[in-house]
Write a structure and sequence with these properties.
Chain B has 289 residues and is mainly α. Helices cover 75% and strands 3% of the residues of chain B. The chains are: A alpha/beta (242), B mainly alpha (289), C mainly alpha (333).
Chain lengths: 242, 289, 333
């Protein structure tokens, strides 16, 4: 399988604190990769560098053969990467449908076509009945789904999901997992996800990367990684601290 | 141009700037804690000025004396404004807060206009024209007195925030709103107190200002802008920054008045503001957000 | 493209708008000179409020220095007319370009340096004040002494030079206001409208969806500044005198934004309704005061302040959105 996203040795420091330290990972085309690790391990910072929020201090990020490190978030989006935010950021005063239309306008030439496409995406995520509700009135699980819908509407080849399962009930997690599986299988969507819900990680990913103190400490198949002593130690160590 | 004149004007500018600083300090304290920009700041100062003018006109009380009851009065006004108007707006969007205070400012300016009319008024104390000789320089006595008082009040305020229990509680509120709530501080009351303290500063400054400039209702908005310029230059929320900003603006205005036209002086202040906003938005002594 | 203007608008709303337009067209026949001058004021504030609303209501950028664009527009067109005999309909384009450039400079500096929220609002005030003092010393347009357009009794209307009776001004302004309303509706329902609203609500999320936030904010500022310049041109030719003290003043900036705030920020009809309500109330108040024999300066503005206070406290979204809901007139109006 060819690599769609290659991250090589990226680092980022904030006021001397090294949030991400020479991290590398590869997301193969058509694959689903999970990025896990304890709180504060640097996962979201990693995402933010891939998505263009921060420019890495060092290292390279290559997407579909093109270097994207240092591009702005909107340029990253046009390159074909969609993302969700861990803390959801819906356009509160707009309806669910309008939220998704904004995303759909990236590829659609007119608002009419964008509306059509947005309806399709909402339907796919089982949210069509909420289309005319202002986003401010949606529940948290609905907002999470809206976040995914909006990103999907931009037609990404790679989707970055930042803890979209957190706070969902088990049945809702199963639904989400099913949606991503389908997107991956039918449309060949490549996914990189940050996730704490291990059930989702195990069910979805073909490959898991573990980040701890900004460094990659393990990298492999899910079953293999969860048995890795270094991984167990970092999680147990954290719990011991708590 | 004789160097003596330039130095004299510069010193006078710095002294006036300290009173500006005291006024701006009020704005800065309020913003630093309550995180609301008091768009009615200059207007509140004008109210204080008119109070001093009335006190002098009716009972011949020197503004340097009446500034104490006036500061108390403005404290009450500020406390009431925060408690009644602004507290309900704490979680509203910035522009909502701005509009609320703009409305208050409009009411204040035009209320004063209705009561006192548009004509300029001042307070003429018997030492108004005295000056103090410092070497070759002749410095206005009122400027020396007011600047000294402004410094003293600022020092007192510093001490209050550093040493007193309430002062510490207010600072805790400013540092960490949520934390302050968690440890059981009455945040709304502390906000009202802070707004009161900021208003008291502007009250004292307003009373003193009657000795330095003529007062009309329309100087309110001008001083609001002035206070913004000063605190942004110094750093919104920074107490030393407000004084530094005040001195800088006082000096700039004096120099601009001397070398260009007095009417052009605000342009220089605003120009400094624009530069600071562009290159150091957190202000000269401000912390980065 | 044109279909978009009426798409999703209930028929009821179209009928109401049609009736209102008909009433406005007939108004000069029904009201006297004084009434006409009040209506011109209403339209002036409705149009200018609409222009400001593009920036604040749509794109979420609070400008408190819009008098800058009115002033630039007014002075540019007036100076071109007086000094070079360039008519207002040609001058207006230059005025718009100048005003847009000023807006773009401010926008560029602010957005490039990451200045937002309250700081941006203060920057807009600062630039307006800076320009005001600058114009006080700008001798080409007679500085603080004021700049005057030649005034004469016009027996025939000369719309090409914007010289004529109030009725002519009224109809021209009515046309401009209607066009601005349609233009804003067109903007809001298009791609750019969605982008602006997204930027207003969550700039970070907007950028993640591929929107070049900087560019679209700049476009908002340019359009708003350009539209506002036109009201400046109108102001210059209608009132025939310009003073930096007045036209660039902070009070003027605030007066301009009261209409849309009271009517409803971000809505299309809000600025119009706000202008109607405010102007009629203020004029009514002046009449009552005059009838009672009071001539107090400041009464009108105290009243404005109180209105603003009440609206912002109890109707944070303005009076139009609840009214719109009550009338059942759809969202994007």
């Amino acid at each position: 399988m060819t690599a769609l996203l290659t991250v090589e040795g990226i680092s980022k420091s904030f006021r001397g604190l090294r949030a991400v330290d020479r991290a590398s990972l590869i997301v193969p085309k058509g694959g689903i990769v999970s990025l896990i690790g304890p709180n504060g391990a640097g996962k979201t910072t990693c995402f933010n560098m891939i998505a263009g929020v921060f420019k890495p201090d060092e290292g390279s990020i290559t997407f579909a053969g093109q270097s994207i490190a240092g591009l702005r978030p909107d340029q990253i989006c046009h390159a074909g990467i969609g993302r969700t935010f861990q803390i959801v950021k819906p356009f509160k005063e707009l309806t669910a449908l309008e939220n998704v239309i904004v995303g759909a306008l990236r590829t659609e030439p007119s608002t009419r076509l964008a509306r059509k496409k947005a309806e399709g995406v909402l339907d796919q995520l089982g949210m069509l009945d909420k289309r005319d509700q202002p986003a401010a009135q949606l529940t948290l699980p609905e907002r999470k789904r809206l976040e995914v819908a909006r990103a999907l509407a931009t037609d990404p080849t790679l989707l970055l999901l930042d803890e979209v399962m957190a706070g969902l009930r088990p049945t809702e997690i199963n639904q989400m997992v099913a949606v991503f599986r389908e997107l991956n299988a039918k449309q060949g969507l490549t996914i990189l996800l940050i996730e704490h819900v291990m059930r989702a990680v195990m069910a979805l990913s073909q490959h898991v990367v573990v980040l701890h103190h900004g460094q990659v400490i393990a990298d492999g198949a899910p079953e293999q990684v969860v048995r890795d002593p270094a991984v167990l130690e970092c999680y147990l160590g954290e719990e011991a601290e708590v | 141009m004789p160097i003596d004149l330039i130095v004299t004007v510069a010193v006078q500018g710095i002294l006036t700037g300290l009173v500006y600083g005291l006024m701006a300090l009020g704005l800065s304290v309020i913003f630093g804690v309550v995180r609301v920009v008091n768009f009615a700041h200059g207007e509140m100062m004008t109210i204080a000025s008119y109070a001093a003018i009335v006190a002098f006109g009716a009972w011949n009380i020197d503004p340097l004396v009446s500034m104490i009851p006036i500061a108390v009065l403005l404290f009450a006004l500020g406390y009431a404004m925060q408690a009644a108007l602004i507290n309900p707006f704490i979680n509203r969007p910035e522009h909502s807060q701005f509009i609320l205070l703009a409305a208050v400012a409009i009411i204040m300016v035009n209320g004063l206009l209705m009561i006192f009319g548009p004509d300029a008024r001042n307070v003429l104390v018997d030492y108004a024209l005295d000056s103090i000789e410092v070497g070759p320089l002749l410095i206005d006595k009122v400027r020396v007195i007011t600047a000294t008082l402004a410094l003293a009040i600022t020092a007192g305020l510093f001490a209050f925030f550093k040493l007193s229990r309430i002062g510490k509680a207010i600072r805790a509120c400013a540092d960490n709103h949520m934390g302050a709530l968690v440890v059981g501080l009455n945040v709304k009351r502390l906000y009202a107190l802070t707004f009161g303290i900021g208003s008291a500063c502007v009250g004292a400054a307003g009373a003193m200002m009657t000795l330095l400039i003529d007062t009309t209702p329309n100087v309110g908005p001008v001083f609001t802008l002035q206070a913004f310029v000063i605190v942004i230059i110094g750093g919104l929320g920074s107490m030393p920054g407000a004084l530094l900003g005040g001195v800088l603006i006082g000096l700039t205005e004096a120099m601009a008045g001397l070398f260009f036209a007095p009417s052009a002086k605000t342009m220089f202040g605003v120009a400094i503001l624009i530069l600071v906003l562009l290159f150091r938005p957190q202000g000269l002594l401000g912390r980065k957000a | 493209m044109i279909a978009r203007l009426t798409e999703g608008v209930p028929q009821r709303a179209l009928i109401l708008l049609g009736l209102l337009l008909a009433a406005m067209l007939a108004a000069p026949l029904l009201v006297g000179d004084y009434g006409l001058s009040v209506l011109i004021l209403v339209l002036y504030f409705a149009y200018t409020g609409q222009a400001w609303n593009v920036m604040m209501g749509f794109a979420g950028q609070l400008s408190l220095g819009h008098s800058l664009y009115v002033g630039i527009g007014a002075y540019a067109a007036a100076a071109l007319y007086v000094h070079y005999g360039i008519g207002p309909w040609l001058g207006v384009w230059i005025a718009i370009l100048l005003s847009m450039s000023a807006g773009l400079v401010i926008g560029f500096l602010a957005f490039r340096f990451g200045i937002g929220g309250v700081y941006f609002a203060l920057l807009t005030i600062a630039f307006a004040e800076f320009t005001r003092v600058g114009f006080d010393h700008f001798t080409w347009v007679n500085g603080s002494g004021g700049f005057f357009l030649p005034v004469a009794q016009y027996s025939i209307n000369d719309p090409l030079n914007l010289r004529g009776s109030p009725t002519m001004f009224y109809y021209i302004l009515l046309g401009i206001t209607v066009l601005a309303f349609l233009f804003c509706r067109w903007l809001l329902t298009g791609r750019i409208g969605y982008y602006w609203l997204a930027i207003r609500e969550e700039p970070e999320a907007a950028q993640t969806l591929g929107i070049n936030v900087f560019r679209y904010k700049m476009i908002a500022v340019a359009i708003s500044a350009g539209m506002t310049a036109l009201s400046g041109v109108f102001f210059a030719f209608y009132y025939n005198n310009l003073f930096p003290e007045q036209i660039f003043s902070m009070n003027r900036s605030i007066e301009l934004i009261l209409g849309p705030i009271i009517g409803g920020i971000g809505s299309l009809f809000g600025p119009i309704l706000g202008a109607v309500v405010l102007t009629l109330l203020a004029e009514g108040l002046t009449d009552i005061m005059a009838a009672l024999g009071y001539e107090l300066p400041g009464v009108k503005l105290v009243f404005y302040g109180l209105c603003l206070l009440v609206v912002v406290m109890y109707l944070p979204n303005g009076i139009w959105p609840p009214l719109r809901k009550w009338l059942g007139l759809g969202e994007r109006l």
